[in-house]
Amino acid sequence: MSCNSCSTGKDGQPRGCKNNGTCGTDSCNKLTVFNWLSNMSLPSSQKPFDCVEVRFKNSRKHFYRNTENLSLSIGDIVATEASPGHDVGIVTLTGELVRVQMKKKKIDLASEDVRKIYRKASQKDIDVWSRSRDREEEIKKRSRELAIALGLQMKISDVEFQGDGSKATFYYTAEDRVDFRQLIKDMAKAFSIRIEMRQIGFRQEAARLGGIGSCGRELCCSTWLTDFRSVNTAAARYQQLSLNPQKLAGQCGKLKCCLNFELDAYLEALQQFPKSDVKLYTEKGTAVCQKTDIFKGHIWYAYEGEWMNWHKLTTDQANEIIAMNAKKEKVISLEEYALELIEEDTKTDFENVVGQDSLTRFDKKPTRNRKRRGAQNKKKRRNNNNTGNKATAKSGGNTRKGNNQNAKKSNNPNAKNSNNAKKNTNKNNNRRKKPNKNAKSN
To answer: CA 108, CA 114: separation in Å to the nearest integer?
Structure first.
């Protein structure tokens, strides 16, 4: 659930969080904690734990002692002890879970670092606090202008006001040491407040500002990651990732923290693989490792001098050959152990169960098929023309005769007698020719 300020506006567009991290429900902030012991009651003889966890701007959290025995719950705004003055924050955790968190972070209950809570914040305290938070963006912009005017090689990334508005903490990042004494004087004169400069790392800067990573989700350092472990390029080598700094670096400019998430699983899987620098000795030649597939458990080897021909083996086969080589025995060749390089078809065929048309129905068909179809159509036309010509050639004489007869009919009125005479002569000629053909055949 989120607070009311995160709901949509009147026009249907999202309004976004306008409370600047002071949400009453504490459900849309960074590093929120769920109290899974809230429904459980303590034994009658045990007193509730007197410390609470208070969150300030972004992910800054501290533990405070409830010396006044105030009835506090998650989401209450309290005024806490600060030097000088007081600070205002939101209670994020109470009860026995605070004891577990303090033990996890190795904070002693009797130490002086655990300060006390003065009271629940009044309306006046909340008004002063909200007015101070509204000034942060303007002051951050002005402080950057002052730093540029002095020529300081630093970046002021965030400004955090104290609850009473008497002090402001400026968080900055810099590669080298920066002399900002004159900058503090200029800012104190311009803003009329107490200035504190605090240098943070690039990872801490990304955690405070937040953002969207290359995976499409919020940055891990701004949502749940609290400790920043060192990340080396060896983690990318073990996972067989390309050593491209643009892909391996996050928004902070350093190596991504997620490179360490699956590193232990890869290291455990690589224990079954032989080392890449171990060579396989066969009667055909010496083979060198070229590639490994951790997921499928395959290794590719190539003979020295035949680097283009790779032979795929399993981890068991490679370990078997290495064991035989340790006994000073050689295998005949890797072809006896090599597996066939059959690429599995990972494409899935989708059936048209809904009755929808094909998505490629509007795509242009290749021109080759058109040419082939055009050639086939031409052949069919030629065949049809040839058959038609033969038929017309057989009946060509008759048609000519008919045309001549028609012409004679139109010109000579006595054409009927002449035509009948010609027909009779043709019949007699045909009768005479028949016995001649039979005689030739005999």
So the answer is: 8
pLDDT confidence band for 109 (50 / 70 / 90): confident
**Backbone φ, ψ for residue 111 (5° rounding):** -75, 160
| pLDDT band (50, 70, 90) for residue 137 | very high
Burial class (CB within 10 angstroms; exposed 0-12, middle 13-18, buried 19+) of 417 = exposed
Residue 169 pLDDT grade (very low, low, confident, very high; cuts 50, 70, 90): very high
- Could you identify the residue written with the tokens 């050689």? 330
Residue 120 has pLDDT above 90, yes or no: yes
Top-confidence residue, 308 or 377: 308
The model's pLDDT over 410-432, given as tens digits with 9 standing for 90+, comes to: 444 444 445 554 455 554 454 44
Is the separation of the CB atoms in 274 and 251 below 8 Å? no
Structure-token match 């006994």, residue found: 327
Q: Give me 34's structure tokens.
A: 């769920």
